[in-house]
Amino acid sequence: MAKRRCAACGGLFVPRRNVPQQRYCSNPACQRTRRRRWQRQKLKADADYRANQAAAQQRWRERHPDYWRRYRQAQYEYAERNREQQRVRNRRGRSAGTGPSPPPIANMDAYHSQIFVRSGTYRLVPVTAEGVAKRDAYLVEMHLLSVA
């Protein structure tokens, strides 16, 4: 069978006979990349899957309410270094004079019903497919029409 190029690492591999559309080699890192890409696409496209994942995460948080507190205690130096870096980012953001400072920590698990965008002028920064924000930004003016 002809060799193919792995979609993750770019290396050549011989696909398995029983997987004719195989795009990733058997390297564990490449398999993690495959699963991560599948999940990202599934979360984007499937509302039921997205709701199920959110519910599962909520149940896990309810069963492990003190996880992050214990983690920060066990990884004290790492957590302290992150806190210091966040303080530096907060100071840098306030000194830039670009309006109100953003919340100090991003929370990917925030409920969508809590997200509220105020009318105003914003900088819109394009993000590449790799998830990297580009430096060029657009100034856009947004007006709230209704809250659903």
Characterize the quaternary organization of these chains: single chain
Overall number of strands:
4
Number of helices: 4
End-to-end span in angstroms? 55 Å
In terms of per-residue confidence, which ranges show pLDDT below 50 for 5 or more consecutive residues? Answer: none
The biggest beta sheet, please? 2 strands, antiparallel
State which percent range the strand residues make up: 5-15%
Mean pLDDT: 85
What would your notes on this structure say?
This protein has a domain at 64-95. The chain has 4 helices and 4 strands, in the order E-E-H-H-H-H-E-E. The chain has helices at 28-45, 47-63, 67-74, 76-95, and strands spanning 4-5, 12-13, 120-124, 138-142. It has a two-stranded antiparallel ribbon. A two-stranded antiparallel ribbon has the order 3-4. Helix 1 packs across helix 2 (47-63). The protein is extended.
In terms of topology, how is this protein built?
Elements lengths: L3 E2 L6 E2 L14 H18 L1 H17 L3 H8 L1 H20 L24 E5 L13 E5 L6
Antiparallel strand pairs: 1-2, 3-4
Helix pairs in contact: 1-2, 3-4
